[in-house]
Design goal:
It is a single chain. The protein is of the alpha/beta class. It has a domain of 215 residues: NAD(P)-binding Rossmann-like Domain (Rossmann fold, 3-Layer(aba) Sandwich), CATH 3.40.50. Helices cover 37% and strands 17% of the residues. It binds uridine-5'-diphosphate. Uridine-5'-diphosphate (UDP) binds next to helix 6 and strand 8.
Length: 313
């Protein structure tokens, strides 16, 4: 039986690189694409000498030309941190729109499975809590986060259109806040921000009152859910995330406790349209994928802190 080939866009990013490693480990040939606007080639260094892995610097908003057989296309290319997509709103919109169109085109041409990395941001500042896949969301299309939220809503819409019109074999994962090794100290997201601030004895920057909530999923749990989703035949969106819900202040205290840091907490203004609450309802994933996260926030933070510490020494 020949090995399967997977094309992963955004493969040098945080989630894309872990997924690449996992699929190579499962025996796939992985063709990794990334334009490195926010991804880092070092994230893929563990695969450098792997025969079943190739990397090409490519911008997915341009036509994707792959020779030979492709069994799966996993579209993970996007700017994903609010700070990054505020800096590059047009590239964010293009990755979600043109990029998804090109990735779907590749999947269709190769008769490959397609998996879209969508996001809990499609729910915006949700009025329903926790969020089920049936909820349509509460998004400000013209606000500063609109570039990301609407690009992902478009990417879901075009995936469904390709399914309906071209019978493309699509899947949609709605990814909730995920954290772990290979995030960047300066990427602006709350977990790496707090850990790096704590390790450097700088103040932890809590935006607003810190009463807003998020649910944090450790990367290994997320990748497990993603692989299971790839292996089922189900085209409606599936929430992947950890239903444990914490305020940002609770997260700050936990990071201070686990690092033993003496850092203070400072308040900064709450960014525009920052969602007040977020927690996935994962009933569908539990039933369909027999999946639920196993790693508690404290344990995942331990591992992530250890990784950041090892990079400093
Ligand atoms: N946040 C914070 N301090 C930081 C970075 C983020 O208080 O240094 C807050 C942010 O306002 C948001 C939450 O943490 O309410 C999660 O932010 P992140 O950028 O990680 O992801 P989001 O879920 O907003 O996309």
């Amino acid at each position: 039986m020949p090995k399967k080939t997977a094309v992963i866009t955004g493969a040098a990013g945080f989630i894309g690189s872990h997924l690449s490693q996992r699929l190579v480990g499962e025996g796939f040939y992985v063709i990794a694409l990334d334009n490195l606007i926010t991804g880092h080639i070092e994230n893929l260094s563990c695969l450098r000498n792997e025969k079943r892995f190739t990397f090409t610097k490519h911008d997915v908003t341009k036509f994707i030309d792959i020779k030979g057989r492709v069994d799966c296309v996993l579209h993970f290319a996007s700017l994903a941190s609010p700070e990054d997509y505020l800096k590059f709103p047009i590239q964010t919109l293009k990755a979600g729109s043109l990029g998804t169109h090109n990735a779907l085109g590749l999947a269709l041409a190769k008769k490959a499975k397609f998996l879209l990395a969508s996001t809990s941001e499609v729910y915006g500042d949700p009025k329903e809590h926790p969020q089920k896949e049936s909820y349509w969301g509460h998004v400000n299309p013209i606000g500063v986060r609109g570039c990301y939220d609407e690009s992902k809503r478009f990417s879901e819409a075009i995936s469904m259109a390709y399914r309906r019109i071209h019978k493309a074999d699509t899947r949609i994962a709605r990814i909730f806040n995920t954290y772990g090794p290979r995030m960047c100290c300066d990427d602006g997201r709350v977990v790496p921000n707090f850990i790096c601030q704590a390790l450097d004895n700088r103040p932890l920057t809590v935006y607003g009152k810190g009463a807003q909530t998020r649910s944090f999923c450790y990367i290994d749990d997320l990748v497990e859910g993603m692989v299971r989703l790839l292996n089922v035949n189900f085209y409606e969106p599936v929430n992947l995330g950890n239903p444990g819900e914490f305020t940002i202040l609770e997260l700050a205290s936990l990071v201070l406790k686990l690092t033993g840091s003496k850092s203070k907490i400072v308040r900064k203004p709450l960014p525009q349209d920052d969602p007040r609450q977020r927690r996935p309802d994962i009933t569908r994933a539990k039933r369909l994928l027999k999946w639920q996260p196993k790693i508690k926030l404290e344990d995942g933070l331990h591992r992530t802190i250890a990784w950041f510490e090892s990079r400093k020494s």
